[in-house]
């Protein structure tokens, strides 16, 4: 919300977050209002979010007419030559897509990386060593990370890749065939809708030995051998997730601050669930202690 609309955490962002959770819950529900409570709730929540964001867009248009400009995503959209031609509805739709696509995915991956690290003390200790080294090279504790730091976290990147592979935050993607497609002896006729399950290759022992085991070290030895089209947590082709690098950077920075400043332990037993979307049953509560 800060990046999109320059809004700091407040009551309004919190109520927006609550509505978003309902939208996310309804995402994979059966889209029949008469039988699905979560679908109904999601539709109502989406209406509230659209109403709320429409007011923000209108307000911003007025402010821009008076020469006020904010350096955020909404500002960039309205700055565009085409910005004025986009209806409020289109802009709100774009903002909702970015909030949904960018928030739940990255925050779930962060949560799961913490869970997997907690359950793999050796991986946690190696990651902490890497991050402590980066922190030690900084003059003071508040000095921010820079791009070169991000590029010198090879083991952290292994942990992130492995978290994405095992957790399958986005379980699959939709496509429509533009012509008849031959696949493994089957013909998928032109115009059919396809659900490509990304989980399939990620959990295949043929591509990833002991595929169900969280093993970040596999990326040290196997990275070059893994064909590009079997590790596809961000989809692929022209619709490849545009946030793929941003989310890796966010998770890296989060892990850096977490392991260099804090230690933690799980507050209760929790379990990863994969349906309707990947997450933890209890949102993985932890007790955190500043080092
Ligand atoms: C761990 C984090 C994330 C995962 C696992 C993820 C995964 C995906 C996947 C699988 C797709 C579908 C790609 C396809 O159809 O081939 C997608 C699309 C998309 N993602 Fe992400 N994503 C993540 C983070 C983000 C972030 C941080 C943003 C933006 C701030 C973002 C924005 C989008 C958008 C706008 C699309 C639609 C692209 C299109 O249809 O052209 N994602 N993402």
Rounded mean pLDDT score: 91
Can you summarize the main beta sheet?
2 strands, antiparallel
Class from helix and strand fractions: mainly alpha
Helix-strand topology string:
HHHHHHHHEEEEHHHEEEE
Overview in brief:
The protein is mainly alpha-helical and 291 residues long. It contains eleven helices and eight strands. It has a two-stranded antiparallel sheet with strand order 1-4. The chain has a two-stranded antiparallel ribbon with strand order 2-3. Strands 5-8 form a two-stranded antiparallel sheet.
What key phrases describe this protein's structure?
two-stranded antiparallel sheet; monooxygenase; 2 domains; binds protoporphyrin IX containing FE; mainly alpha; 51% helix; 291 residues; two-stranded antiparallel ribbon; single chain; 11 helices; Cytochrome p450
What does this structure look like?
- This protein has 291 residues and is mainly alpha-helical.
- The chain has two domains: 1-86, no CATH class; 103-290, Cytochrome p450.
- 51% of the residues lie in helices and 10% in strands.
- The chain has helices at residues 2-5, 11-26, 37-65, 73-79, 88-119, 121-136, 147-150, 154-167, 199-202, 218-222, 244-261; strands at 172-176, 181-183, 186-188, 193-197, 262-266, 272-273, 279-280, 286-290.
- The strands form four sheets. Strands 1-4 form a two-stranded antiparallel sheet. It has a two-stranded antiparallel sheet with strand order 2-3.
- Helix 5 crosses helix 8 (154-167).
- The two termini are 30 Å apart.
- The model has no long low-confidence stretch (mean pLDDT 91).
- The structure holds protoporphyrin IX containing FE.
- Residues 97-98, 101-102, 105-106, 109, 164, 169-170, 173, 233-237, 239-243, 246-247 line the site of protoporphyrin IX containing FE.
- Pathway: Plant hormone biosynthesis; brassinosteroid biosynthesis; Hormone biosynthesis.
- Its cofactor is heme.
- Its main location: membrane.
């Amino acid at each position: 919300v800060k990046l999109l609309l320059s809004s700091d955490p407040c009551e309004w962002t919190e109520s927006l977050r609550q509505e978003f959770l309902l939208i996310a819950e309804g995402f994979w529900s059966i889209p029949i209002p008469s039988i699905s409570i979560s679908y109904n709730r999601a539709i109502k929540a989406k209406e509230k979010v659209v109403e709320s964001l429409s007011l923000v867009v209108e307000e911003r248009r007025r402010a821009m007419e008076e020469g006020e400009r904010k350096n955020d995503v909404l500002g960039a959209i309205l700055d565009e030559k085409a910005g004025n031609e986009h209806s409020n509805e289109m802009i709100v739709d774009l903002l909702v897509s970015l909030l949904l696509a960018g928030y739940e995915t990255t925050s779930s991956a962060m949560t799961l990386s913490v869970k997997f690290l907690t359950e793999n003390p050796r991986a946690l200790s190696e990651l902490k060593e890497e991050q402590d080294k980066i922190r030690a090279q900084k003059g003071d504790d508040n000095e921010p990370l820079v791009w070169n730091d991000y590029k010198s976290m090879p083991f952290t990147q292994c942990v992130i890749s492995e978290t994405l592979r095992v957790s399958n935050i986005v379980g699959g993607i939709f496509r429509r065939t533009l012509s008849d497609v031959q696949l493994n002896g089957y013909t998928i006729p032109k115009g059919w809708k396809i659900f490509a399950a990304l989980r399939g290759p990620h959990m295949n022992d043929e591509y990833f030995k002991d595929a169900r085991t969280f093993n970040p070290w596999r990326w040290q030895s196997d990275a070059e051998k893994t064909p590009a089209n079997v590790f596809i947590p961000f989809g692929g082709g022209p619709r490849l997730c545009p946030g793929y690098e941003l989310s890796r950077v966010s998770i890296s920075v989060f892990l850096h601050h977490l392991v260099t400043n804090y230690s933690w332990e799980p507050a209760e037993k929790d379990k990863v669930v994969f349906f309707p979307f990947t997450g933890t049953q209890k949102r993985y509560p932890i007790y955190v202690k500043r080092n």
